[in-house]
Fold DUF4974 domain-containing protein.
Amino acid sequence: MSRKEFGQLLQKYLRGECTPEEKTFVEHWYGLLETDPGEAGQEVDLSTVEGRLWNQIQRKMDAKESAVSGRVVPLQSARYRWIGIAASLLLAGIWLFAQWQPDRFSAFNPLKTDTRPDWTEQTNSSAKPLLVRLEDGSTVQLAAHSTLRFPKHFASQNRTVYLTGDAFFAIQKMPSRPFYVHTGTVVTKVLGTSFFIRTQPATQQVRVEVVTGRVAVYDQPKENQPATREVVLTPNQTATYYTDQQKFVTGLVATPRLIEPAVDEKKQSRFLFDDAPVSEVVAQLEKSYGIAIEVENPGLKDCPLTADLTNQPLETQLAIICAALKATYEIQGTTIVLDGKGCSQ
């Protein structure tokens, strides 16, 4: 605060624009002002008193004193009482400002972010998804009865938000500024991707489903401590965190999506096979969905397959393959295992 602003503050309090609580609080500080005994009850120039108060405050702040001994002189004039109040309130305000440091707000403490004036809280009270646009160009489809807390301006080192409920995130790629989503005991870190986060309040489970890109999911560590459990997810993979057991269980999303949807005739025919070996079919499926598919029996890899799997979900495509080869498949974590007796040549 400048000297000019200080003078304006004194004028404000001379007009009596303060509360009784402020009067009681600041009179303690006014009593610390160094005053000559002969000044009590005398008429003193306002500018002189203002200068002495300002200098006194500066000395106290420079010395970082929390308490200074002094002589308390009864104030005969209400006019000087208001000046003391103004000076005291200014001193308290400067001290509070010096003590408040934004850096003290940890990225791992969602409760503290609520008190920051530059944070916004958006709650979807409707039954339809609510689109929230963030400063960096990222978007969040906020599900019904869900809440997102985010800063109006992201930090230069990272982008951090807090989610309660379910949402679909489409994050702008910024390798130098990773994006963090805090959801209860789980943190999701991304550089640029799209994914779902679903929570189960009753069981305190948090489920992350990746659509594009890669994300790292880890449990909420204590401040300044590294995460003890972390999994990296790629498209069509999911991880569910069980709070009671403090562990992640990985798997595949219920309906895997194509990583690169078909946009031309050539890509439309990529699932049309004519006497193609199973190894080629599997390789095409792996590339299209980003999912690892293992063929348990090597004798199955060379079996020919003629089938049109176009415009079918992955579950149906696998069912058609198994029916044609008299094989079976099962999902083991994030991998699909295909097995069968093979074929006769």
